[in-house]
Write a structure and sequence with these properties.
This protein has about 325 residues and is α/β, with parallel strands linked by helices. It is about 40% helix and about 20% strand.
Amino acid sequence: MRTFGISCALAGAALALGLSATAGNAQELRYAHVGAEGDIQTRYAAEAAEAIAEATDGEVTIQVFPASQLGGVAEMVDGVRMGSIGMGHHDFASLARIVPDVAVFNAPFIYRDGAHALEATDPASSPALQEINEKLIEKGGVRVIGRIYRGARHISSNFEVKSPEDLAGKPFRAVPLDLWVSMVKGFGATPTPVEVSELPTALMTGLVVGQENPLTMINANKLYEVQSHVAMTGHMQSILAVFVNEEAWQGLSQEHRDAITEVLDKKAHESLQWATESEAELVETLEGHGMTVITEEDGLDLNAFSDRVLEQIRTDFPSYEPYIEQIGQLQ
């Protein structure tokens, strides 16, 4: 476990909000996520925590708990809602139990590129996110205050995948969220929910024969040891929400809130740079580990995937349409 700094001045309710007193009058906030060492999201959390401590002169400090140390996705979200965990990050869709439509920000094939994804998920300027954020606060006591770009998500498997027909009827890992289940149906596969911490074992045992994630995660989790192919579908721009317990957030001074959001926005744009620079290098790395990388030049039918997946998403989530329209209008 690593400890870094961010802190929140809610002395009277510190224990209830997962906070503890530190030297002086500083407070410590627990920040949880499920990312493994080497993943962009892990780097983001560590560097953001250090930068926030510096920006607040040590008055706000964070203890970061990576790699599912405080539980899986559901436990983390519940912890932030209840206040036993102060902050966390994961896919926007992890908050869909509070406000179902928040999952639209993870919908496949809706962003032009990573920069568009960052713009559409900026808490300070995105009309779609601002509308949904108000609902998250009202219904769940949780606020999105930042985002992380991890790169485009691609399919890895134990066999060649070029079209949805290649996955027809096969057990395929779905993030245990409704949006992912719908998307995997669009792939033509049979959705099989598996937590990320259990994914290597599920792939090794054949519980699932494929999964989808950014290349950073595929490499960091050494999935090349249990997978042979990567299809460069780029079906999602992987964008994660950084969210906080609303009571803890309101307990901070405006000066500290401004400092934190400034740091998180800077780190969001840095994460886009990290992901962009690393993708070509990661392709070479994965090939070096024996994986076969499949692109459109090799016959990968991206239009077939896009058409099938979007048809499934529109069928399962008709309420997404106005938000998708708003997102598409952003320049």
